[in-house]
Amino acid sequence: MRRSVRNESGQISILVLVISLALLATTCLIGTIAQAVVTQQRLNTKAESIALAGAQELEFNQAQACDVAIEFSTTNYGLIVDCISTPESIGIVISEPTPNLFLRTFFSTIYASSRAGIVAENSLNSVD
What are the angstrom distances between the C-alpha of 48 and each of 34, 54, 57, 75, 81? Predict the structure, then answer.
């Protein structure tokens, strides 16, 4: 009986290389996704502060609430906002380009929205 002898030296090196590349790719992907999540959270914070700035004006001058919010956004963040105000609340929508070039292929812009309002006087004294 003849046995064929195959040289198996070096196979573990290839396996280690493949696993290392897979771990490196996974780490890069997780970092990219984390960057997008942090950008989204920062944009949400900006939207909330802009909406609160506009809501402070609602009680005194509802017609200028959006103007105040837009001025606050431009002055503090350099962002252009979409604003809708009613007598009770103000809604803000802002957007920024996706910071990561890889993620830009899937979604080019990150959006955030926020709504802030004032409480009506008669709802403070009512008991439900």
Answer: 21, 10, 15, 15, 12
Domain that holds residue 16: 11-125
Neighbours of 59 (CB within 10 A): 12
| pLDDT digits 0-9 by tens, 4-49 | 666 767 788 899 999 999 999 999 999 998 998 999 999 999 999 9
> Does residue 5 lie in a domain region?
no
Q: Which residues contact 91 (CB under 8 A, 6 or more apart)?
A: 51, 83, 84, 85, 113, 114, 115
Answer whether residue 28 is part of any domain.
yes
Assigned domain for 50 exists: yes
Span 101-120, mean pLDDT?
Answer: 88
- Looking up tokens 């009680």 gives 59
